[in-house]
Structure formats: structure tokens, C-alpha cells
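thought: fold this chain, then report.
action: predict
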Amino acid sequence: MNKDELYQRMKDGEITHLKYYITVKGITVSALAQQSGVNKRTLDDYVSGRRSFGDIVLSRGLRIAEVLGVDVYDLL
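observation:
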């Protein structure tokens, strides 16, 4: 799947913004967990949409955004 198709899936609500950026940046959830200091299981919940990224603790969201090289608002 190319970047444009993936972007459209995100805009259509089929995947989370976090899933989009993880895929585009080519990072695994495990690597993101290690680099951001956020528990992998917690990240899995945000990536899958089981938890809303809008409810994340700000410091945690900022660490994730920093690792991905995006603005935290891009993940909402």
C-alpha cells in the first residue's frame, strides 16, 4: 500500500493517525516503545484505537510525537 492510500485510510477513519505515522516512518511499535519510554501494550492500544490518543497524558504524547518527528496534534 502506498503512502497516499494509507493517508486516505487514515482520513476515512480506517486506521489511527498513530498507525499512519508509525507505518510511514517505518518504525515498529516495539522500537517506538523503547525510544519513547511508553509501554508497548499501551502503544498497541493507541495504535489499534482501543484507546483514544486524545485521552493520552500530554508528556507521553509529546515523547511519542518527538520520536516520530511529528507535531503531537498530528496524532489526534
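thought: worth noting. The two ends are 22 Å apart (CA to CA).
final: C-alpha cells above.
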